[in-house]
Amino acid sequence: MQWTLVVPVKRLARAKSRLSDTADDGVRPGLALAFALDTVTAALACPEVADVAVVTDDARAGRELAALGAAVVPDEPGGGLNAALAHAAAVVRAARPGRPVATLNADLPALRPAELARVLQEAAQFPRAFLADAAAIGTTVLAAAPGQSLRPAFGPDSRARHRASGAAELRLEAVDSVRQDVDTGDDLRAALALGVGPHTAAAAALLPGRAPVPGQ
Ligand SMILES: Nc1nc2c(ncn2[C@@H]2O[C@H](COP(=O)(O)OP(=O)(O)OP(=O)(O)O)[C@@H](O)[C@H]2O)c(=O)[nH]1
Ligand SMILES: C=C(OP(=O)(O)O)C(=O)O
Questions:
Q1: 214 pLDDT exceeds 90?
Q2: Could you give the C-alpha distances from 99 to 92, 107, 108, 132, in angstroms and in order?
Q3: Domain 3-203: what homologous superfamily?
Q4: Is the CB of 55 within 6 Å of ligand 1?
Q5: Can you tell me the ipTM of this complex?
Q6: Hey, which of 32, 64, 136, 196 would disulfide with 15, CB 3.0 to 4.6 Å?
Q7: Domain boundaries of the chain, sorted by first residue
Q8: Full-prediction pTM beyond 0.95?
């Protein structure tokens, strides 16, 4: 079963505010874009993924992600993350009603296609399912079978909120790259240790106190 992924991307100028102590206003938008480029590149390389739709209001992110092969859905509701996801899911569902849909956060710069494939294969066993983030508080993937509405409940404590909504929590081992979202400087260090994609490696090398990562 092949999935349509919906990837939300906040306006780059406002994105990743919790990284402001690690990356100042001059470099943070480029870092957020690099995360999204590496996330979408890995998602498009996953055999379980048919297509990727990015929902964003950011012109530069839309342009650069479209160049990778993603579709771009304008964030018309402008009502925050959950409204953007519900809107984009409705748009992609109208085009292909028989396909399962999953959201994937755009801040997974270490994402590996084979680990995402395992997550999506497991999610296909349930009407709705989700994967908790590395901190075990948030959510990085929320998946819905054909005919099931996504009902996204991202934000504070989204792991508990998705569980309370009846979605199955995926209890997979060794899918660290799908769980490792980057909100803070510590998260970025953890992602770099897992091994990030080339856009993030280049952007992270520009941060103060960071040497380029050899081989990336
Ligand atoms: N389209 C869209 N995407 C959003 C919106 N808010 C957050 N996102 C995306 O949703 C995912 C998870 O969001 P967060 O991890 O909170 O990222 P963030 O909002 O950039 O980070 P902070 O500013 O530190 O809260 C990321 O891929 C964001 O780019 C929104 O209002 N619209
Ligand atoms: C929006 C979310 O992401 P984060 O915790 O990374 O802000 C979430 O996990 O629901």
A1: no
A2: 9, 24, 23, 23
A3: Spore Coat Polysaccharide Biosynthesis Protein SpsA; Chain A (3.90.550.10)
A4: yes
A5: 0.98
A6: 32
A7: 3-203
A8: yes
